[in-house]
């Protein structure tokens, strides 16, 4: 039997939900590793909806679970139904939805709160010592909930290649250790069983982002 891995989504679209390429890469690599993905999302309203052509918020309202179902091809469950006992690992792709819907990092940074159901799921996997894979901005969830953990969001010096590098400093202020890495690399925190990679925190070719996520998924499945 292949490993059963929970994948938690935050909507559909980089600016207000899950980053679609990252979510797709996670699902592709899980399939390649012979693992069974079980997709979940919280049944909550999005913080806002962004017009991805204009890059501007709109008055529209959308639901995180309903939007995430687009990526999951409808095969998705309410996060409230997740039972850690029947699952071997957890992966959360990135996208601004992690910082807007799964937490309030987008508006409050290190002072953010994490969505109750998301926090409960992360703490449950952590307590069960089951591996957790996080990419792009989603390592901030671990930084907030597990002080002293080790993660990567890429590099800590802002430049054209690393436009979101200041995130690393905010994570350090929460008491976690940030480890610089290249986009195709991962960092493993063996004590907390966290596997992280930078993905679209880096301005890199999409195949390199895909490869980095593949390395993350492969290690999560191995640890499971």
Q: What's the layout of helices and strands?
A:
Blueprint: E1 4-8, H1 20-32, E2 36-41, E3 49-51, E4 56-58, H2 64-71, E5 76-78, E6 89-92, H3 96-100, H4 105-108, H5 116-127, E7 132-135, H6 139-145, E8 150-151, H7 166-173, E9 177-178, E10 187-189, E11 194-197, H8 206-223
Parallel strand pairs: 1-2, 1-6, 2-5, 6-7, 7-11, 8-9
Antiparallel strand pairs: 3-4, 10-11
Care to describe what's here?
This protein is α/β, with parallel strands linked by helices and 224 residues long. It has a single domain, classed as Class I glutamine amidotransferase (GATase) domain (Rossmann fold, 3-Layer(aba) Sandwich), CATH 3.40.50. The chain has helices at residues 20-32, 64-71, 96-100, 105-108, 116-127, 139-145, 166-173, 206-223, and strands at 4-8, 36-41, 49-51, 56-58, 76-78, 89-92, 132-135, 150-151, 177-178, 187-189, 194-197. It has a 7-stranded mixed sheet, with helices on both faces. Helix 1 packs across helix 8 (206-223). It is globular. The relative contact order is 0.17. The model has no long low-confidence stretch (mean pLDDT 97). This is GAL3A protein.
């Amino acid at each position: 039997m292949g490993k059963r891995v929970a994948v938690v989504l935050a909507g559909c679209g980089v600016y207000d939900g899950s980053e679609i390429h990252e979510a797709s890469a996670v699902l592709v690599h899980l399939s390649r590793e012979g693992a069974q993905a079980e997709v979940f999302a919280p049944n909550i309203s999005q913080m806002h909806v962004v017009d991805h052509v204009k890059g501007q918020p709109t008055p529209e309202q959308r639901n995180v679970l309903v939007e995430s179902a687009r990526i999951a091809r409808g095969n998705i469950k309410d996060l409230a139904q997740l039972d850690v006992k029947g699952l071997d690992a957890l992966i959360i792709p990135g996208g601004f939805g992690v910082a807007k819907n799964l937490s309030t990092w987008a508006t409050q940074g290190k002072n953010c709160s994490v969505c109750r159901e998301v926090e409960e799921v992360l703490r449950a996997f952590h307590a069960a010592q089951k591996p957790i894979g996080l990419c792009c901005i989603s390592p901030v969830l671990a930084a907030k909930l597990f002080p002293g953990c080790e993660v990567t969001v890429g590099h800590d010096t802002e430049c054209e290649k690393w436009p979101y590098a200041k995130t690393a400093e905010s994570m350090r202020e929460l008491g976690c250790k940030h480890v610089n890495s290249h986009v195709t690399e991962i960092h493993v925190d063996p004590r907390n069983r966290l596997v992280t990679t930078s993905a679209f925190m880096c301005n890199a070719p999409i195949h390199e982002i895909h490869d980095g996520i593949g390395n993350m998924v492969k290690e999560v499945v191995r640890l499971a």
